[in-house]
Amino acid sequence: MKIKTLKKVLFVFISFLLLIAVIIFSLEYFSSYKTSKTIHLDAPVITRKSIVINAPVEKVWKIFSDVNNWDAWQKEIVTPKIDGEFKPGTSFYWKSNGLDITSTLQTVKTNKMVGWSGPAFGAFAIHTWYFNEQNNQTTITVEESMEGWLVSLLKGNFQSSLDTSIDYWLTALKAESEK
């Protein structure tokens, strides 16, 4: 009698896991996101941050646009690799906070603006960076939106993580640019 009960429990458990796997696969496979040159204002997670860097915009831009060396100064990023020139349509690959990310540059205006977007597991993000120089200082303003089934499910966690990550990224870019 105990073996029959154990088999039923095991069958229900395995069936449940398969159902969850099918649901996650379907959510990933059938999700479609729209790229944009600006963030999606209706996304469940949005952040906007800025910082003033005591360096000319050309220096900040040179550091920022060198994707292959992001991990030298931004320790949350692992193995960044750009697949071509830093221009619209070029993709780059990176890991951040445990996520493997493929992003595609949408907008590149030298010393002015960069925008990219890309999917990660259960998420789609759009990043827009604005560079503004005044009196030999550069103000960076970042906007990012995140959407997707996992983002909607864990909105608070994603919002907190994104805010912390962007703060860190800006602080690291400031430190590197002011050397």
From TrEMBL:
Taxonomy, superkingdom: Bacteria
Name of the featured protein: SRPBCC family protein
Organism of derivation: Flavobacterium endoglycinae
